[in-house]
Amino acid sequence: MSKKEENKEIKEEKEEQSLTNLPGVGAATVEKLEQAGYTDFLSIAVASPAGLAEKIGMTASAARKVIQAARSSLDMGFETGDILLEKRQQVEKLKIPSENINQLLGGGFETGAIVEAFGPYGSSKTQIAHQLCVSCQLTGGTAVYIDTENTFRPERIVQMAKAAGIDPQEALKKIKVARAYNSDHQMLLAEKIEELIKEKDANVKIVIVDSLTAHFRAEFVGRGTLADRQQKLNRHMHILSKLASTYNICVFVTNQVMAKPDMFFGDPTEAIGGHIVAHNSTFRMYLRKGKKGTRVAKLVDSPNLPDSEAAFVITEDGIKDV
Ligand code: ADP
Ligand code: MG
Question: Is the distance from the beta carbon of residue 148 to the nearest atom of ligand 1 less than 6 Å?
């Protein structure tokens, strides 16, 4: 298939999912829907008629029709266990040179999942992101990197690639990096990733958003805007989550934890984005500095793995066990 044909195919698929296919929904309503956070069929399918009617300014019966149409066009049914097992068998576990961290995650960074690394400044979130870009190439994968803090360093990739026995120039060619200038730009870039994934022989195995939350935190200040921020962040993570499961990719996101000097009780390691980010992440790793320059990763809230810890170090060659 030529590039042009492929692009056409992508466009056609997009059109098929367009909200304008819903009954009584034109461009103006789509805009209202999107502003209210209803960006895809699923978000509409699970909405309540009264809620949708109020937010969009349509009658309840019109809202009901829209919801019904969204539901029937979605494959929202049950799947049999054997199909689910088959999907599970396609899951790959991407390994980095720290066996401690791999084991903490049950064997490696899972494709089809979102892995969130949260921790204070300097806890190695970005270093692990770089490591994943290199390590995924050992099994033929490539990486996509959304850099929001301008901390991606090709020089660091060169060091890690050399240590992994990969030609550094080749390694760099297999990492597509985009700098995101604000949260809207970041969300737009996330939507573009699908096109990169579909490119011939792309074999994207890892998608990185480093940092997931920095722009959101900076742009939405004050209590009044918190709900807006959470809604937008939720939408962003929804897109990432869909990429992970549709294309069997590991999405690695980083989240800086703020020190809360006014907090004496409760969890001091609470991450930005609160339950929205936590809910959307399949694996959550808390990173902190340990003794003598080491780092410690702790798995939290995992549904099927023990909450345990792994110690590691950052070396010139990359992430290694102590
Ligand atoms: P975060 O993203 O969590 O803020 P980073 O991933 O940027 O933190 O981690 C920064 C740490 O990585 C620093 O302590 C720095 O010393 C260490 N580091 C960066 N590059 C190297 C290297 N080439 N060799 C050893 N340590 C490094
Ligand atoms: Mg960082």
Answer: no
pTM metric for this prediction: 0.80
Tens of pLDDT, residues 160-191:
999 999 999 999 999 999 999 999 999 999 99
The answer to whether 17 and 40 have CB atoms below 8 angstroms apart is yes
Distance (Å) from CA 258 to ligand 2 centroid: 13
Distance 93 CA to ligand 1 centre (A): 24
| Domain map (residue ranges) of the chain | 3-73, 87-321
Residue range 133-149, pLDDT digits in tens = 999 999 999 999 999 99
- For 3-73, CATH gives 1.10.150.20
**What number of CA atoms fall less than 13 Å from residue 10's CA on the CB side?**
17
Write the DSSP string, 202-226.
Answer: --EEEEEEETSSHHHHHHS-SGGGH
Q: How confident is the model at residue 100 (pLDDT cuts 50, 70, 90)?
A: very high
**CA-to-CA distance for 29 and 48, rounded, in angstroms?**
17
137, amino acid identity: Q
Ligand 1 center from residue 175 Cα (angstroms) = 19
Fold of 87-321: Rossmann fold (3.40.50)
Please tell me the residue having the least CA distance from ligand 1 atom 10.
122
